[in-house]
């Protein structure tokens, strides 16, 4: 029988510190008695660990509350110090990068967006990300010594050890040594993760999925990608490929991974280019390229061509959501990304069609996190590392 080693006092202290921080970071002021009830730890352990955390700056002790009914010594009162450090959430997309700086409660202190327009080389893209990081930190008045960790999202499968599955030309664009470069320059750890996985973390934490532990987030902009959560647990797969949507090439009525924004833009441009087609898109675009936003605007104004395009997109998206309902049986599928707000208008048609494709249709919602959905999830990812026992 293999030998097992007893937990050492330092390990127990780290575990107990993680428990207390997990409770305090999600609560307001708590007494020692409240922490005992929430963690199951003894009074002596709670007070000893809180003393350690106070000394380290992670927890502050507030003055006791006294009144005429108090008998004996009043309870000690503790509060999580959300200013003890900061984390970064970094979304490295195909067209732009978004950086959030947040305190340890996940409250955003600064946001920066930089475009990758005209930037192709991986090293140059990394430099754009680094410039966005520096700008966001300056705006938040945060230095490298204030940052504990950063979460970084990329549009490629990432395994549990943080390595990109570079089996696809599009995915290889993100295999640039970014996290190693950030850690070397700034001195804090940068944690790489798939963008859709971070999106589902963000949605479960701060979005439409807060009450759903069986959740899928469908990023639906230029390409479809999905993040999967089962019983509150993020699914990766053996090589990080869980939730990848290449299988859509085999699905009748879909045929590829092109997302809502791409289909709307391309179909809209085809209509405008055909002089025989009557559509207000031509006037809305003028001399500029047709965008997905213009197609949604034209449909809202009653343009028949734009309405037909969006109905086709709704049919296509319903098939995509149905496959997720069949394969993973989530309670809720949230459509996220830059198209989420506009996609709200597609939901009635999608929900109407779902029961014709699957006997387990999920609820469908549009994300309210906008273009920060991945960066918010990256903040959550960094906080998960920060608030575990690994720091103690």
TrEMBL record:
A GO MF term: kinase activity
Family the UniProt entry places it in: Belongs to the ROK (NagC/XylR) family.
Name by which UniProt lists this protein: Putative NBD/HSP70 family sugar kinase
Family matches, as PANTHER family: BIFUNCTIONAL UDP-N-ACETYLGLUCOSAMINE 2-EPIMERASE_N-ACETYLMANNOSAMINE KINASE (PTHR18964:SF149), ROK (REPRESSOR, ORF, KINASE) FAMILY (PTHR18964)
InterPro entries assigned: ATPase_NBD, ROK, Tscrpt_reg_IclR_N, WH-like_DNA-bd_sf, WH_DNA-bd_sf
Domain HTH iclR-type: 19-60
Keywords: Kinase, Transferase
